[in-house]
């Protein structure tokens, strides 16, 4: 059975801190690793990674995939209170996404 | 350009009842997937509809069924509701059956079973 494990499950930091969120996966017919941000209801897309070792960046967020170790990290630098959310890691196979439980990030002023 | 829309946003049912949730995909998308997100958990894949047929199914009982209409919109039906069915039900749309790139999610339907 496909499995995605995220750590930590929750994290509390102060504004300006840098955080690293971890994701390991075991997904049959793996095709992509995606990160989503969920603030209230609808998860919103952050990154899709398909190749090892190539960092993707969007502003203060960046992510990288290691297909040999079946691992991905999401980095957020200079955190802001608006970064407070659940960050979901998911492995994509032929037809579905398998999600981890998410990391609840709380950024305090 | 309207994104994925779902209705109703909230509903309360009692055990044993039946519920129907609705989803309209993002314009240009032809594939709809349904996910169940229990409190404190990540979304779990229920099933996928493409060309008006259920193409793939996750580990959910037959009480969960669905339908896709010619305009690509979709319904999720749950029969004989159990307390454990209380969750946020998310609809996601994409183009193409085998696309596991970015999925666009709706705001979800929050179901509470009493």
Q: What are the salient characteristics of this protein?
A:
heterodimer; A: 109 residues; mainly beta; 5-stranded antiparallel beta sheet; 0% helix; 58% strand; B: 114 residues; 11 strands
Approximate helicity band of chain B: under 10%
| Alpha-carbon Rg of chain A, integer | 13 Å
Distance between the termini of chain A: 41 Å
Helicity of chain A, in percent?
under 10%
Q: How far apart lie the N and C ends of chain B?
A: 37 Å
Using only C-alpha atoms, the radius of gyration of chain B works out to 13 Å
Strand content of chain B: over 45%
Average residue pLDDT of chain B: 93
Tally the beta strands of chain B.
11
Biggest beta sheet summary of chain B: 7 strands, mixed
Query: How many β-strand runs of chain A?
Result: 11
Biggest sheet character of chain A: 6 strands, mixed
Summarize the helix and strand pattern of chain B as letters. EEEEEEEEEEE
Unreliable stretches of chain B (pLDDT < 50, length at least 5) are: none
Note the total helix count of chain B. Answer: 0
Element pattern of chain A in H and E: EEEEEEEEEEE
Describe this structure in words.
The complex is a heterodimer of chains A (109) and B (114). Chain A is mainly β and 109 residues long. Chain A has no helices and eleven strands. In chain A, the strands form two sheets. In chain A, strands 2, 4, 5, 9, 10 and 11 form a six-stranded mixed β-sheet that branches. A five-stranded antiparallel β-sheet of chain A has the order 1-3-8-7-6, with no helix packed on it. Chain A is globular and about 40 Å long. The model of chain A has no long low-confidence stretch (mean pLDDT 94). By secondary structure, chain B is mainly β. Helix content of chain B is 0%, strand content 50%. Chain B has no helices and eleven strands. In chain B, the strands form two sheets. In chain B, strands 2, 4, 5, 6, 9, 10 and 11 form a seven-stranded mixed β-sheet that branches. A four-stranded antiparallel β-sheet of chain B has the order 1-3-8-7, with no helix packed on it. In chain B, strand 7 and strand 8 form a beta hairpin. The mean pLDDT of chain B is 93. Classes of the chains: A mainly beta (109), B mainly beta (114). The A-B interface holds A 4, 31-32, 34, 36, 40-45, 48, 88, 90, 92-102 and B 4, 33, 35, 40-45, 48, 55-56, 58, 88, 90, 92, 97-98, 100-108, 110.
């Amino acid at each position: 059975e496909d499995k995605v494990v995220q750590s930590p499950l929750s994290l509390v930091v102060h504004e300006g801190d840098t955080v690293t969120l971890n994701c390991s996966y075991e997904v049959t017919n793996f095709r992509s690793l995606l990160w989503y941000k969920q603030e209230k209801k609808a998860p919103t897309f952050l990154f899709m990674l398909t190749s090892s070792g190539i960092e993707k960046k969007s502003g203060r967020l960046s992510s990288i995939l290691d297909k040999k170790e079946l691992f991905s990290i999401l980095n957020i630098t200079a955190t802001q209170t608006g970064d407070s959310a659940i960050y979901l890691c998911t492995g994509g196979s032929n037809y579905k996404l398998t999600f981890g439980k998410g990391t609840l990030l709380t950024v305090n002023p | 350009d309207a994104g994925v829309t779902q209705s109703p946003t909230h509903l309360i049912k009692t055990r044993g009842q039946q519920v129907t949730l609705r989803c309209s995909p993002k314009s240009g998308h032809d594939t709809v997937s349904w996910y169940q997100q229990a409190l404190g958990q990540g979304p779990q894949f229920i099933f996928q509809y493409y060309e008006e047929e259920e193409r793939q199914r996750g580990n959910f009982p037959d009480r969960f069924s669905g339908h896709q209409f010619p305009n690509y919109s979709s319904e999720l039906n749950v029969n004989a509701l159990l307390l454990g069915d209380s969750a946020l039900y998310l609809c996601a749309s994409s183009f193409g059956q085998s696309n596991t790139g970015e999925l666009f999610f709706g705001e979800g339907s929050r179901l509470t079973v009493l």
